[in-house]
Amino acid sequence: MSLILDHVSYTYPGSAHGLHDVSIDVKSGELVAVIGPSGSGKSTLLKLVSGLSTGHSGRIALGGEDLAGKPVHQRELGMVFQSYALFPHLSVLDNVAYGLKLRKVATNERRRRAQELLETVGLGSYGASPVTQLSGGQQQRVALARALAIDPKALLLDEPLAALDAGIRGHLRDQIRQLQQRFGATTLLVTHDQEEALTMADRVAVLKDGRLLQLATPRDIYTRPATRAVAEFVGLSTLLPGRVSAVDRVDVGFAELKTATGSRAAGSTVCALIRPEHMRPDPEVDAANRFLGTPGQQRYLGSVVRYDFLVAGASQRFLAESPVPAREAIAIDPDHIHLLDE
Ligand SMILES: Nc1ncnc2c1ncn2[C@@H]1O[C@H](COP(=O)(O)OP(=O)(O)OP(=O)(O)O)[C@@H](O)[C@H]1O
């Protein structure tokens, strides 16, 4: 079932903040992750979809049905929050069965369904346990089972992994994604963690100041950000302001970069974006875009070393990343230079 936000705007009473003309179409069975800096409107968007906030303009529709005027409990959404929001006085099984009880599903049937979901999330033997005795990661799996138990029209995941430590987060990220795909759940995931968004989502929506900057696949968001703001928010990069000097050249002041052939007119003001892994150390002498310089600070990250590279004769510092330590020269493959309009 699709979830459509069509030109949705909302402002908080007495303020200019909120959401401005946001359109996002979550296709049936798709997971769209919403990311953006603090205050960009992620929570506002979720509150509007869930019905916790009302009074937007534009249209929010689930399965073709406009949600305007529909109270929270009638929207048939499965929700998972950072805080788990489980009922501490209920057992694990009763937590999962809770939504079914509200829907007046018979006792045996709801216990059967809850047990089945607990098994799906790997907690089949925990049904009788008090929910408070479970670890954070286990509690979040209970919350997910509870959200799925009602066979929701869509899933809303609000920072579901933010309270967990890194090791569990990675594991649970994979598990949530597998379940979301197995159930074919149309899902909106709000997260401040860009790695989570890129690894879990079919598409990523980047918000800033209440506006949608880009909605695209994780690969496109990373390799072809639409604006400098997206590039700066997602991943690390070196950004070189410059001017197009030919169809395949950009003058960045201290050098002329060779780029892939583009369609921008000579003289266009652009910004060249280069990701750290595309700064190739120790290139052959005739490599395109070869720069001599001095390695600066180095950070050992296990599989790679990330380092600053100070280009000779320029104030510009490159950010590079490679499996081998920094050397005295670096090259940038023209195909990996992405130009942004300035
Ligand atoms: N109740 C409110 N009244 C007035 N302004 C609000 C209210 N709640 C949020 N805002 C403002 O609306 C904007 C969007 O806030 P929102 O909470 O949606 O951002 P967010 O992206 O979820 O941020 P965070 O990552 O910090 O949770 C911000 O400028 C915020 O200050």
Question: What features would you describe in this structure?
Answer:
The protein is of the alpha+beta class and 342 residues long. The chain folds into two domains: 3-224, P-loop containing nucleotide triphosphate hydrolases (Rossmann fold), CATH 3.40.50.300; 236-341, no CATH class. The protein contains eight helices and 20 strands. The strands form four sheets. It has a six-stranded mixed beta sheet with strand order 6-7-8-3-9-10, sandwiched between helices. Strands 13-12-11-14-20 form a five-stranded antiparallel beta sheet, with no helix packed on it. Strands 15-19-16-17-18 form a five-stranded antiparallel beta sheet, with no helix packed on it. β16 and β17 (305-311) form a beta hairpin. The longest helix is centred in the middle third of the chain and has 18 residues, at 166-183. The protein is elongated and about 75 Å long.
* Uncertain stretches of 5 or more adjacent residues: none
CATH homologous group name of the largest domain = P-loop containing nucleotide triphosphate hydrolases
The domain count comes to 2
Run of helices and strands: EEEHEEEHHHEHEHEEHHEEEEEEEEEE
List the bound ligands: adenosine-5'-triphosphate
Please write the CATH class name of the largest domain: Alpha Beta
Keywords: ATP-binding, Cell membrane, Membrane, Nucleotide-binding, Transport
Protein name: ABC transporter ATP-binding protein
Pfam families: ABC_tran (PF00005)
Domain ABC transporter: 3-234
List the helices and strands and how they pair.
Elements: E1 3-11, E2 18-26, E3 31-35, H1 42-50, E4 57-62, E5 65-66, E6 77-81, H2 92-102, H3 107-120, H4 136-149, E7 154-158, H5 166-183, E8 187-190, H6 194-200, E9 203-208, E10 211-216, H7 218-223, H8 228-233, E11 238-246, E12 249-251, E13 256-258, E14 269-274, E15 279-281, E16 290-300, E17 305-311, E18 317-322, E19 329-332, E20 338-341
Parallel strand pairs: 3-8, 3-9, 6-7, 7-8
Antiparallel strand pairs: 1-2, 1-4, 4-5, 9-10, 11-12, 11-14, 12-13, 14-20, 15-19, 16-17, 16-19, 17-18
Helix pairs in contact: 2-3, 2-4, 3-4, 4-5
Bound molecules: adenosine-5'-triphosphate.
